[in-house]
Amino acid sequence: MDLHRVAVTGLGAVTPVGNDVPTFWSNLLAGVNGIAPVTHFDTEGFAIKLAGELKGFDPHVYFENVTDLRRTDPFTQFAVAAAEQAMADSGIAGKVDPRRMGVYIGSGIGGMQTLMTEHAKLMERGPGRVSPLFIPMMIANMAAGVVAIRTGAKGPTLPVVTACATSSHTVGEAFRAIRHGYADVILAGGSESTVNMLAAAGFHNCKALSTSDDPNAASLPFDLRRSGFVMGEGAAVLVLEEYEHALARGARIYAEIVGYGNTCDAYHMTAPHPEAEGAAEAVRLASEEAGITGSDADRIYINAHGTGTHMNDTVETLAYKKVFGQDAYRLHISSTKSMTGHMLGATGAVEAVAAVLALRDDAVPPTINYRDADPECDLQYTPGQALHTPLTYALSSSFGFGGHNAVLAFKKVTD
Amino acid sequence: MKEKLIKLIADYKGVAVEEIASDKTFGDLGLDSLDIAELVMQIEDETGVEIEVSPELNTIDKLAAYISERQ
Q1: Given CB atoms, is B38 within the 8 Å cutoff of chain A?
Q2: What CATH architecture does domain A259-411 belong to?
Q3: CB contact under 8 A, A67 and B37
């Protein structure tokens, strides 16, 4: 069977640094920090004080009637917002056979706020008062379900749940589906809404979170001072489209997606493999499929997973060294989580958007607040300021609890 | 009772009470089975009457009569 090329023809995002793609991207390049004191709940009694929350996001803009809004958890609302932005950006509406259009939007956790609200009702008022909307609102596939309803997409629809790698996997699997001819267009991405008391307690108690109360000294990827990640929220969706389909309708093509690596550490529930086995293999697979070699290194941007946990950043650095050897020192790497926090199931798609725009603009967004070098993390992490340099490829890496690894490779379109 | 139900449903849908006709079916008011199940809980809480949902109980007028008989 012939393999198809796959283009990125639309982008949408709601993030802690902007509720649309142009704002998100200009703020990333300017090094704007989206991390701030938590407003979604009172942090009295909690060790964590900061999060990357959305600012001024109004779901009513995307939901014409309140009944539809009431029937969705915020994670679905964020996904709808990102998907509708991406659809509008691509101009694809009405230009694809609905049976050839799919939705691959995942969430790491799903409707956790809904779960908490309904659990409280169960405990306080008994089983008869648990909402009939509880299950449909909570289940993590519902963002994909609702986006399909709203866009009329009737082709393959496949949410993924791989924790923090979720939406790198959705984008990668969507790429595969189009590459092998199962769809012409797929809305691919992820969404997360977990800045709440239960998630804060759970992540903190498994020692994953920074407890800093200084927004500029909390999410510190690759910095020696790093002590955990900062929770973020939001969503991003990319319109992936079969290349000839995009050309035929005169679509603007942001970039081509040319590689995908999907592996598992098969090692530990939360810790990465100390020798970066699975992560390095995912980087290698994506690079190999993309045709990337070490000689390209100074024209490669890597949007790192870069969570700011001790283990991730050390192991991730090791993974790039294992794949690229000495050439790894010429790679342009950054972690935009220094600005957005860790958007969990949304983070892969958000960072894929950043990777695509980095290629378009030959611009590497910075790792902000980077100060103290760690001898174990000794690559180029683009500290402080964006770097303007010619790029050919962009990789975006995500590694999740469960040992899930996903790496995407994008290429600048020149022909 | 009828006014109370109209108000409750108008609030649920986020529309003016004038837009809610008490003789229209719930389906015609744009409410599906999930909405009705959700609304019935609220109505039970506010009226203290337990409501056995059935296909015949499909307008505000009929529901108001049902509740009034049992209060």
Answers
A1: yes
A2: 3-Layer(aba) Sandwich (3.40)
A3: no
Q: Where are the domains of chain B?
A: 2-70
pLDDT tens-digit profile of A243-284?
999 999 999 999 999 999 999 999 999 999 999 999 999 999
Q: Where in chain A is the domain with CATH 3.40.47.10?
A: 6-248, 259-411
Contact at CB, B12 and A70, closer than 8 angstroms: yes
Q: Is the pTM of this model over 0.80?
A: yes
CA distance A59 to A123: 30
CATH 3.40.47.10 assigned to domain A6-248? The reply is yes
The reply to whether B23 belongs to the active site is no
Q: Is B14's CB within 8 Å of A129's CB?
A: no
Q: A199 with A216: CB under 8 angstroms?
A: no
Measured between CB atoms, does B50 come within 8 Å of chain A? no
Structure tokens at A180: 């092998």
In whole angstroms, give the CA distance from residue A106 to residue A165.
10
Number of CB pairs < 8 Å for A and B? 26
For residue B30, list chain A residues with Cβ-Cβ distance below 8 A: 67
CA distance A398 to A344: 10
The second-level CATH assignment, the architecture, of B2-70 is Orthogonal Bundle (1.10)
